Amino acid sequence: xxxxxxxxxxxxxxxxxxxxxxxxxxxxxxxxxxxxxxxxxxxxxxxxxxxxxxxxxxxxxxxxxxxxxxxxxxxxxxxxxxxxxxxxxxxxxx
Length: 94
Hints:
The protein has one domain. 29% of the residues lie in helices and 12% in strands. It has helices at 35-47, 64-77, and strands spanning 30-32, 55-58, 87-90. Strands 1-2-3 form a three-stranded parallel sheet, with helices on both faces. α1 links the parallel β1 (30-32) and β2 (55-58).
């Protein structure tokens, strides 16, 4: 999976409103600690038959190094569209 170009907008502008997901045509998977809010919006979008590129939920108590390693593994081993309509938790449970 090729790396996407860097989005020049500050993080405060993406997504534009709290609790919203980025436009699905951007194909960006969301990485979040906000499991309760974003997961609900993601599942609502899936239930409504709308596109949803995916959500990776990183536990706020997760060791940073393990979370980075797991996200890197997901990025390197996934194919385009693989996470469409899915939510996954990181770090992986051992």
